[in-house]
Write a structure and sequence with these properties.
Strand content: 5-15%
Number of strands: 8
Shape: globular
Distance between the termini: 16 Å
Radius of gyration: 17 Å
Amino acid sequence: MAGSRALVMGGGGPVGIAWETGLAGGLEQHGVRLADADLIVGTSAGSVVGAQLALGRTPSELIAAQEALNQDPGRLAQRVYDLAPLMQQFIKFYTSDEPPEKIRAEIGAFALAADTMSEEEWLASFGRMQSMDSGAWPEKAYVCTAVDAADGSFVAWDKNSGVPLGRAIASSCAVPGIFPPIELKGHRYMDGGMRSATNADLARGHDRVIVVAVTSNTRAAAMPKLMERMRKRFEGELDSLREAGGVVEVIAPDDASMEAMGPNLMDPSRRGAVAREGVRQAHIEAARLRDFWS
């Protein structure tokens, strides 16, 4: 794949969607058009932003949508979810020495048993996204990730998978314990972040890869073992890309962006401020990425 480029958009809840959107918009203002990637890989929040870029929506449109959501009183009243039960599942996943699929299946059992909104309500929120309600996939190579809640197996949905785009993205964003696993082809699927926050190894074989990693700078001093395992897993994915001949650039939230994001990435009230921080940080990142991406 001489000269091929891949974009990896990682997970991070509604806050991550806002930051990735602002980042993409700010980078485009400075001549770094992420949508020009030959492959876009999206996980959870990144599946939403990645799909919108692949479908041709401009970053300025996406930023305006985030600002509109933030100014809607009904939206601001959305529940800020308690992440403590989910964090317990993450701790289990990243600190256990048992086979990953087995741990993911246990998380899937937790997700299937959780008292959440209905699948129909969750799907309706994706139907409201422009260009996603038809179920049609973009022509550009785009994949989004999910995990089978029953057996923990991993799937990367694309236009050849025979599933509607909106349902695929909803499955990628189905955070265990918060949103319901989504039925596709007789199975129910949950958030692709249960395998990896980025699943960056799916971009293996491309020459240049930008990895947008919302959670890679997460600070949790009280859980050093968890943070170390997460860091090693992420570095392993990057090593896989490099071993295949790829050159990788990582974009992670800087201190100001982290401050705007706050401690709960599921807090929708922060979207407007976080999108603006994404734009601001993009102005800094563009200087090192312009020649790399052109």
